[in-house]
Amino acid sequence: MPESQFGQLRHQPRVLLGPGPSNLHPRIFQAMSSPILGYLDPDFLALMDDTMVLLRRVFQTENELSITLPGTGMAAMEAAICNVVEPGDKVIVGIHGFFGQRMADIVERHGATPIKVEVNFGEVIEADQISDALDAYPDAKMVGIVHGETSSGIGQPLEEIGRLVRERDKLFLVDTVCSLGGADIAVDQLLVDICYSSGQKCIGGPAGISCITLNDRARSVIDARSQSPDTWYFDLGLIQEYWLGRGAYHHTAPGPMIYAIREALRMIDEEGLPARVERHQRCGDLLKFGLRDLGLQLFGDPENRLPMLTCVMIPDGVDDVAVRKRLLKEYRIEIVGGFGQLKGKAWRIGLMGYSAQEANVHYLLAALAEILG
Ligand SMILES: *Cc1c(COP(=O)(O)O)cnc(C)c1O
């Protein structure tokens, strides 16, 4: 790979239409090259406060504890789970794809038992199934579910499940890594107690920074633990001392990553969340319409397809890898293959953040039309 004398890689830019990372607006790079501040510099603390205000807006919450975490979306998933669960706890996990399965795996790693409520790939979990699981396991501590299943392109309805979980006085944990910043996810209104996301998908920032919000119900469950969480780095009790308590050193804040996500959140604010949600919907609809026009078939429950991640079946006789190779080499477009049972059978096309542009949709559709003949 060619490199400049300054060590900068000189590859051609890509049109990133996979399930993340997405393209970054130049403002994000500019923000990342701002001067470095010490983690206790008053200007940095003010910037953290501003980031919390912006996070509350995108999560649509009043939660005081709305912060970033170092690491990608998986860091936030692990933090959300391991701060709550103690050995012997039960967590009901709704599984409608790959990331729900990961949630269950993490519950298990931390010594708790996942009660799996599974549906077929491409379907959504019915509220009745969660209700039945809560009846069968009245001692469950939490219900965890993925909103945007990036593996299937399906969006899980949350409203009814949120009500059910609150009625039973359990915690409700929702993964919005794929969808936050591109979908209307009103954390407080949906009765979600813990919600997390990641920089590089619809939020429009880089990979390597994630975000999480917890309400007082969740915080009091964590406070009432009989033992410390089996994590030090992701111990939210310690991390909140830095974000809310001021001044307690926990880890060196990753300055440029926080600059980046803050700038991405500022851009969401400027565009307006409703307009941004509408943009993702419009681009997703345009893509689905165009793919059908090319004679391709979309995967999964038509009622609940995500706008920001479209899963499309590969036509018979078409070579998955060869098409993606040509897209990348000749058009510099990245799309990604299917997961699990959809491996080799489907493509996953993301339209997230700055990548969610009508021009990108037209370009991809034209490229696919040429390649598929
Ligand atoms: C991408 C994704 C994750 C993991 O995020 P990383 O940033 O890749 O660690 C978790 N959940 C969902 C739904 C995702 O789409």
Estimate the strand proportion: 15-25%
Distance separating the two termini: 32 Å
Count of helices? Answer: 12
Which small compounds were modeled alongside the protein?
pyridoxal-5'-phosphate
The major β-sheet equals: 7 strands, mixed
What is the mean pLDDT?
97
Structural class: alpha/beta
Number of separate strands: 14
Describe the overall structure.
There is one protein chain. The chain has 12 helices and 14 strands. The protein has 373 residues and is an alpha/beta fold. A 7-stranded mixed sheet has the order 2-10-9-8-5-3-4, sandwiched between helices. α4 (98-109) links the parallel β3 (90-95) and β4 (113-118). The two termini are 32 Å apart. It binds pyridoxal-5'-phosphate. Pyridoxal-5'-phosphate (PLP) is lined by residues 20, 72-74, 77, 99, 146, 148, 150, 175, 177-178, 198, 207.
Brief summary of the model shown:
The chain is α/β, with parallel strands linked by helices and 373 residues long. 39% of the residues lie in helices and 16% in strands.
Task: For this entry, give a set of tags.
373 residues; alpha/beta; 7-stranded mixed β-sheet; 12 helices; 14 strands; 39% helix; globular; binds pyridoxal-5'-phosphate
How is the secondary structure organized here?
Blueprint: E1 15-16, H1 26-32, H2 42-59, E2 65-70, H3 73-82, E3 90-95, H4 98-109, E4 113-118, H5 127-136, E5 142-146, E6 148-149, E7 154-155, H6 159-167, E8 171-175, E9 194-198, E10 209-214, H7 216-223, H8 236-243, H9 255-271, H10 273-293, E11 309-313, H11 320-331, E12 333-334, E13 336-337, E14 346-350, H12 358-372
Parallel strand pairs: 1-12, 3-4, 3-5, 5-8, 8-9
Antiparallel strand pairs: 2-10, 6-7, 9-10, 11-14, 13-14
The structure holds pyridoxal-5'-phosphate (PLP).
